[in-house]
Specification:
single chain, 323 residues, Conserved hypothetical protein from pyrococcus furiosus pfu- 392566-001, ParB domain, 3 domains, 56% helix, elongated
Length: 323
């Protein structure tokens, strides 16, 4: 989708005016569904002091017989609480469904205080209406970072009951989207999915219970990165059966921590793989040294001598015959 195509999705501008606050209704397609009290109170105090400085963006809906808010729902909510009779608006032509959602995205550019799940739901509508699933094209269309689109699609893979937990109006009860995004890599791991005891929904529920009760050391959503790393290390070390048993034990037993998934020999294998990669880089760099060009670089040759001595000492300690 080109920039011209995106520009065509913008509704035509009509003009700025003041309208009655009662003639406005929220946009049912607003990607932002959650409005927490603390930020609202800050905005309300500002409006009470200086008024609404930026007009709301609205369109007239023939079906609703009201003006629908494209941008400025928080300003409208605060104005109602303050008892204002009218508000300044910039009216545009009534958009199509796709124009409506795209305009909302383009106006807001996913502000930092937005929750991700409501954004994902509106992105889902666009994917369905446009028959488009390409992350790059969707990102360009919505003015979102491509990584944000990918995260949204991960959230859409979860059953509705988990999506609803991310939409709880009470911030204290709301489950952060990051929990499900970090868990995604574990529950969608092909090897994990082949474990005979594994159920994606049951595993998700158990991890949520452990996380919310702070059991098994799941105090941070990044714990799932550690879990995935333990699984990967075990597989590389050909410890499939052992990691399968340990993950099952961790799943059932709340007294076990993530360290239960650590397989010492697997950790060693992971360290060896990293070290081998570093050694190969050093080998290549040393091989490419032009002796005549670096002949007078004493610091370089001194470091190479120390490296040679260190390598010899390690080989001797390992009982290796030096050639």
């Amino acid at each position: 989708m080109t920039k011209n195509d995106i520009h065509k999705l913008a509704p035509e501008n009509i003009g700025i005016k003041n309208i009655s606050i009662e003639s406005l209704v929220p946009n049912p397609h607003n990607p932002r569904m959650l409005f927490d009290r603390v930020p609202l109170e800050v905005l309300r105090a500002s409006i009470a002091k200086v008024g609404i400085l930026v007009p709301l963006t609205v369109y007239w809906s023939q079906e609703k017989e009201h003006y629908v808010i494209l941008d400025g729902q928080r300003r409208w909510m605060c104005a109602k609480e303050l008892g204002l009779k009218d508000v300044p608006v910039n009216q545009v032509a009534e958009p199509t469904l796709v124009q409506n959602i795209v305009t909302m995205f383009q106006i807001h550019q996913l502000r930092e205080d937005w929750e991700l799940m409501p954004t994902a739901l509106k992105l889902e509508v666009l994917m369905r209406e446009l028959n488009e699933r390409n992350d790059k094209k969707l990102a360009a269309l919505c003015g979102l970072n491509q990584a944000v689109v990918s995260r949204c699609k991960k959230l859409l893979s979860y059953p509705k009951k988990y999506q609803d937990l991310m939409l709880d109006p009470d911030p204290g009860k709301r489950v952060k989207a990051d929990f499900f995004i970090e868990l995604y890599v574990v529950i969608n791991d092909r090897f994990v999915n082949k474990m005979t005891w594994f159920s994606k929904n049951k595993f998700t529920q158990r991890m949520l219970e452990k996380y919310q009760s702070r059991k098994s050391g799941l105090k941070s959503v990044t714990a799932f990165r550690i879990m995935k790393q333990h699984i990967n290390n075990a597989r590389h070390a050909k410890k499939d059966k052992l990691i399968t048993e340990r993950l099952k034990e961790f799943y059932f037993d709340d007294t076990l921590t993530l360290d239960h998934l650590r397989i010492q020999s697997a950790d060693v294998s992971a360290g060896v793989r990293k070290l081998l990669g570093d050694i190969r880089k050093i080998e290549q760099a040393v091989d490419e040294i032009d002796v005549s060009e670096y002949y007078g670089e004493e610091e370089l040759w001194s470091h190479l001598e120390r490296l040679l001595k260190l390598i010899r000492s390690k080989l001797e300690a390992a009982g290796r015959r030096l050639k």
